[in-house]
Amino acid sequence: MNSDLFLVTGLVIGVFSVPSIVSSLSDKRPPRVAAFTLIASGALIVYAIQTKPGGYELQDIPAAFARVLAMII
Question: What is the DSSP letter of 28?
């Protein structure tokens, strides 16, 4: 698998876990599933950064999204 795919997957999962965290905290219940998805997201992002030679910079992220989208389509 491509490191761009791991990065994009981790970022998407991380973004989708934020509303779940907010919802859990507003209902005064522990965010167990949201915490698990956030940990999984972080692990994917760290793995992507470690497997790509030179790592990623902030300006590389939109290009990574474009490459993954082009790969899927």
Answer: T
Whose CA is closest to 46, among 14, 10, 16? 10
Gyration radius of the chain over CA positions? 14
pLDDT of residue 54: 87
DSSP reduced 3-state for 27: coil
Each residue's pLDDT tens digit, 19-51: 999 999 999 999 899 999 999 999 999 999 999
Residue 1 has pLDDT above 80, yes or no: no
Look at residues 36, 59, 35, 48 and name the one whose alpha carbon lies nearest to residue 1: 48
Q: Rounded to an integer, what distance in angstroms lies between the CA atom of residue 19 and that of residue 66?
A: 25
